[in-house]
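Researcher: Next entry in the queue.
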Amino acid sequence: MRDYLEFEKPVAELEKKIEKLKSYPPEKIGRVSDEIRRLEEKVVEIQKEIFSRLTPWQKTQMARHSDRPYALDYINSLMTDFTELHGDRSFGDDNSIVGGIAKFEKKSVVVIGHQKGRTTKENVFRNFGMPNPEGYRKALRLMKLAEKFSKPIITLIDTPGAYPGIGAEERGQAEAIARNLMEMSHLRVPIIVTVTGEGGSGGALALGVGDRVLMLEYSIYSVISPEGCAAILWNDSTKAPDAADAIKMTADDLYRFGVIDEIVKEPLGGAHRDAREMAKTLGEVILRHLNELQAMPADELIKKRYDKFRKLGVFSEQAI
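Model: Structure for this entry, 320 residues:
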């Protein structure tokens, strides 16, 4: 069963009719084939109309969709010979971050991503995609491994944020994130970052310092969740839709501000509607950027990365 969002109700109703017609016996299906075709065309027409005017809050719902492809889905679709590596060599392994060595378009790469679960059991195992400090330290260990063996790094971001538990704080959550930011800024290999779903706060930034930062069309990237922002500003989490609009967290907003380098187009209806096509599109975009970056000397790569992030949040002062 497909999981429809509230604003997709018109599509849901039509698709249920289509499924009902397609369930007719073979000897009767011919009688309704024209009606099926007409309804399918109507679905596409309605989807185009709905998705041409999504609000920031609706895009947030899309970014969190339970059927949306996760890191391992992209890794399995785009890469071969993936060997997952575990542990931070200090405390333990964090299952909310997956990473290892793989082949991408015949290139040996290190890939790292946040991993959520689909069932309750999987989400508990993956800690709902919210890493502890050992997750970020595992990621850094893999990045340093990539630098040592001159392998480009591909990161896939999809997290509500770093885990805020007492144990995480005791083990140095903030330090682990800050260290990743510092170390990623001067790694001597290409880094391509893609926000595939939620890009929440420092939990996302810890994998987000790259030479190219991409966002899927219906992903979000922000310092705080809309609910968290609404709770702080208005003491009312139900105002999350207003906060989503104010934060400017969508791919369109962030591209306009120069925070990201490219928006990756999603299939009509979102990435979960056609995960294979989404992976194909993302793979082509990553490969294009990777070829450009691999042609640069390491010193030039680091300088451009530094300049790129120094330009963010530029402001000017005026005398009063």
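Model: Strands lie at 79-84, 97-104, 107-114, 153-159, 191-200, 212-216, 220-222, 262-264.
Researcher: Noted, moving on.
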